[in-house]
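Form 7-S
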Amino acid sequence: MRELIDLAARMGVRVTGAFLSDGRTGFSSIETRTIGFDMRLTMNERRTTIAHELGHQHYGHVCDGDRQERAANTFAAHLLITPAAYAAAELMHNDVHAIADDLHVTVELVRHYQAHCLQRDGMYTYLRQRIPSAQP
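Output:
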């Protein structure tokens, strides 16, 4: 978690926790350079939400749409999941929940990583192009 807070600080973004009453897990404000997460989230959910919202900040998204959400999820996946850690988790588990626990992220982010960051070709798996600035 500390690495995400450090990255946010380097990006000039303030991270806040709050009890969000509208069902959202997090939010991002480009104008105030602030992101927030719901305090009721688990640690894995917090990490994933903060990384996702940092993606919105990175790209300067001011409105949410499917394309922006996908880009923010891809940013978060590249930020939180390294190819080596994913490969090790996948070798140990064939259950997405166990892989997510090993990687300290949500199941949804693992599924996004599998669908949008990896490319499988027979028995080989390749990593699609990484976002250069996604590493903390």
